Amino acid sequence: MRGCSVGEAEEQPVSSGRPMAPTSLRRHYPDQVPTVGGASAALSALVGSRISTHRTPGARDLGLAAVSAQSRPTRPAPPEGIGPLRRQRLEWARLYFVCDARPLGEDPEPLLRAALTGGAGMIELRDRESPRNAVERSGQTFRRLADTYSALFIVNDDPYLAVELRADGVHLGQEDISAAEAREILGPEAIVGLSTHSREQIEAAAEQPVDYISVGPIWETPTKEGRPGTGLELIREAARIATVPWFAIGGIDTENVAEVVEAGARRICVVRAIKDADDPAAAARALVDAVEAADTAER
Fold it and tell me: What is the pTM of this model?
């Protein structure tokens, strides 16, 4: 295994015949569209995207440039460095979709595209059953689509697999490797998430090197067999005391998301609500709309 951290940026060669990919921006602004360009597109801003030319601009060029500058909407500039860009995307994310390597035994790409098109800002590869080679192949699809849609790609449990798949980070359970160990493996630029199931664990997370936490499960769910639901009261607690971005998780769907938002959640994490939906993209949009409506009402 190559001894590098997820936080290292790969240098992108610039050829005289092909321009660099444009700076990638988040999709949650109405005037922005998904970035298309494959695995290198998402972080293209970090390695330089301007190609100089030798032609001296004429008056017509300058006039068109002035009109173009006046008509362009004002957009927040992406931060410099992989770590800040990842954390900005984390801050923007409202919907986090967890998916296995072959959902329902199929290629994950159509389902991931639907979730991302619907507004998911984070996708997580979580699969403890499939062979390693199947997980690795699917990981390449997760990485490519996360780049295309300017989303974060997270790997469940295994920081070494996160390095191998060039993921943006790892999500840990309370019984997994410690956040400090994961941070040492991945480096300071990576995203580290942690599951929490009680007020005490939420408070303890503030003292650990984590970037976000999940809170729940609110309701019992087959994806976490044997773990009792925490109820909405823990969501209310998290809204009061959490010190990092947090995602409500556990049994959330389009029918009950309003209750979760009313309890104080402004980010949600789902599995079945998208995977089992007749129209996964529409389900994702409905979930995002519910959260963003609460965001808008607070402003």
Answer: 0.75
Cα(85)–Cα(79) distance, rounded to whole angstroms? Answer: 6
Assigned domain for 136 exists: yes
Name the nearest CA neighbour of 82 among 161, 144, 5.
5
- Residue 64: count other Cβ atoms within 10 Å of its Cβ: 12
Q: Cα separation of 146 and 85, whole Å?
A: 13
129 lies in some domain = yes
Amino acid 189 reads E
- In this structure, what CATH number is given to the domain that contains residue 183? 3.20.20.70
Q: Which among 69, 79, 68 is positioned nearest to 25, based on CA atoms? A: 79
The tokens describing 272, both together, are 């079945």
| pLDDT digit string, tens, across residues 179-230 | 999 999 999 999 999 999 999 999 999 999 999 999 999 998 887 777 789 9
At residue 215, φ and ψ (nearest 5 deg) are: -125, 120
Domain interval for residue 155: 82-298
Q: CA dist 231 to 103, 130, 132, 157, 288, Å? A: 28, 31, 35, 25, 21
